[in-house]
Amino acid sequence: METLVTIERALEIVRKTPLSLATEWVPLTEAHRRILSEDLQSKVDDPAFDNSAMDGWAVRGEDSNREEIGVTAAGDPPAHIDSGQAIRIMTGAPIPKGADAIVKVEDGINGKAHTNYIRKQAENLRKGETALHKGQLMTPASISLAATMGYDSIPVQTRPRIAIVSTGDELIRPGQQLKEGQIYESNSFGLCALLEKVGCIPVLHNVVEDGPEGLRNALNSLDCDAILTSGGVSMGEFDYVRKLMEEEGDLHFWKVAMRPGGPPLFGTWNDTPLFGLPGNPVSSHLVFMLLVAPWLAPEISLAKKVHVRMKDSVKGAPGKVCLRRIQILTEGDELVATTHTHQGSGNIHSMVAHNGVTYLQPDTNAGTGKIIQALWFND
Ligand code: AMP
Ligand code: MG
Prior knowledge:
Layout: E1 2-5, H1 7-15, E2 23-27, E3 40-41, E4 51-52, E5 56-59, E6 67-72, E7 85-89, E8 101-104, E9 113-114, E10 118-119, E11 130-132, H2 140-148, E12 153-157, E13 161-166, E14 171-172, E15 183-184, H3 187-197, E16 201-204, H4 212-221, E17 226-230, H5 240-248, E18 250-256, E19 258-259, E20 265-269, E21 272-277, H6 281-296, E22 303-310, E23 321-322, E24 325-331, E25 334-338, H7 349-352, E26 356-358, E27 371-377
Parallel strand pairs: 1-18, 6-7, 13-16, 13-17, 14-15, 17-21, 19-23, 22-25
Antiparallel strand pairs: 2-12, 3-11, 4-10, 5-7, 5-8, 8-9, 18-20, 20-21, 22-27, 24-25, 24-26, 26-27
Helix pairs in contact: 1-6, 3-6
The structure holds adenosine monophosphate and magnesium ion (MG).
């Protein structure tokens, strides 16, 4: 077990325990944002035949005086011309046999003939060529390409089922009346949404009280690909996630050199990967974004690394990467950042009121005017 690891080291450690996911075939209409699980070879040439890139006439380039003998449209079989003849042609129609160039409709039948207005068979893709790769995120364009290649369904990874277990005696579900000392449980809901963003299926468990039995029973009852817990990973006496993982699980690391979000842990429980997130709402959110998301879905990015010029000064943290909430905006041709709410790790409003965080290296501060690294959240 390693402790107080850097963010990079934490990522290295978690990547040694990848999820094992099955393959399922889905129709292209359901393929958006799925992860391709096999390389795909094109079943056809693209284009399948030489065709016109323009509306105009199919001609022989050497002819100067042409006579129109017919019309060919997209979907027709190839026509035929002899010397001195031309055929009216529509975009996408097959090039008639005997033609070697296209005259644009705007130029008139005896206008300039262009060979580059012919889209040649297989100039984009040859039959058998691999154009979509295992591990690739299916975007609207790659779905269109899969269809062009002749696929109506594709093999993708099953969506990971990720259990969420929040721990804490003080937590009750929103909608109920708070008693003294209680707070609304909020992390699960943010984590559900984050999981959906990275293509996973969240499986929400009831809140578990602080104590070993309830937690052990909850963890043993789960049927999922990985577990996220929230709370109970710090140094406190009631931090049972850490205690149980130490004593009965297999712990790979505990604590990461980041602030907020210092005490996360990672390991396995009965061979199921388990990420223990801190209870403070900003911490659980940022640990998910920086450590859990790149592990679960390396192809999907929740934030862009950018450089910003600080308009306010922010303090860093000794020995830790410091993630202060900032508002990033463009000013002229540069990005600038301001900060304007209370930065406590319990203040989830700071994540709503800002659109990014600083990525301040350990033991560095950012004075006003300084250019620093930051993470700019994607919507
Ligand atoms: P813990 O990590 O369990 O020590 O909790 C740290 C802080 O986060 C405490 O103030 C908790 O009340 C709060 N907290 C823990 N879990 C949650 C949760 N699921 N939703 C909202 N706040 C939480
Ligand atoms: Mg707690």
